[in-house]
């Protein structure tokens, strides 16, 4: 395993790479949230019924289910850098085409392809970032990728509010196409991002790995140090390795806690205006959009104390207590379906704040619990499983609000969250301060505190 990378000082190179990698999560938050605002104008313009709205809401998530597993495996086989730009180009093309859609199936198809591209970015960008980061900064910076997700969501509601306020609900085509600009910005930022030296070494390209470390970290390193830990190598690769001991339990843990977290969460973000409308918030234009935007902002704010907790208290206590506390506001709304709109906003904001713990560990855990040869595959599988929950929640929520009512819908969300708590109590591991290469089924080793064993390039 690489002591040089695990113990390297945090530099401007790491900051730029972290910013470049945040593009996928930010675009995901934006793309999945802007449709909730666009539906205000899209629904009457295209004559959509409840089933059509559910299909549009779930299409991107279904694409992410397919894309996560598929592109995670490809990323481990052909490299992180190869697909690093292609997925953003696909997002850009789909965003532009969204301006001319004129039917529910065309919208659903484009959003399915957008989901494929977004899901591809998760294993590419987070595994690349994890494999370059020093151990002491890894949890914080991987956690900040989800901050970018919520920043994208908040931005989507601000942009949507501006379009509603100054152009009107008929501007929904511009809303869907507005992600084109974000894609262009991150295409520029990502120029020159390097391949992972750990991946290069694991695939026999040790000379290239040494050269890329010298170029970006400014140190000379023994190529043998970059080779993967022998304890984590060998045996079946790809998806098969994830289902062999000890990875089977880790695979189930990462997928299930992610599933139970984002099922209720994505449904609330996508149909936030409709939920608040069921509690009496005036709907259709501005207030419900602003209320949902406020809840999205609290999701973002809640990540910051969690980022500190995972590096001080630890990963396991943070995720267990977060899930336990997240249940309370959902139960409150479930038992009080006639609560005033302000109470509903306060309860959903409390839920959003408490989600910070699982949020910042969504990509931290799968990147830390698996070795280089299947790291992106693990991230992709966890993403795919989570998007099953998100798609089911997004598809069923409007139907549940109509058929069951607000109270039972909130209690179902509380039950799903309780399952997530059980999964974390049983299976969550502590990976704080571990060397990245120590994820091999044995007890994780601590990163050396002595500093990198390398020679500075002069």
Automatic annotation (TrEMBL):
It is a multi-pass membrane protein. Pfam families: Sugar_tr. The chain crosses the membrane at residues 17-41, 53-75, 82-101, 107-125, 146-166, 172-189, 250-269, 289-307, 319-336, 409-428. Residues 439-458 are annotated as: Disordered. Residues 17-432 form the Major facilitator superfamily (MFS) profile domain. Keywords: Membrane, Transmembrane, Transmembrane helix, Transport. InterPro entries: MFS_dom, MFS_sugar_transport-like, MFS_trans_sf. It is found in: Cell membrane. Its main location: membrane. This is MFS transporter.
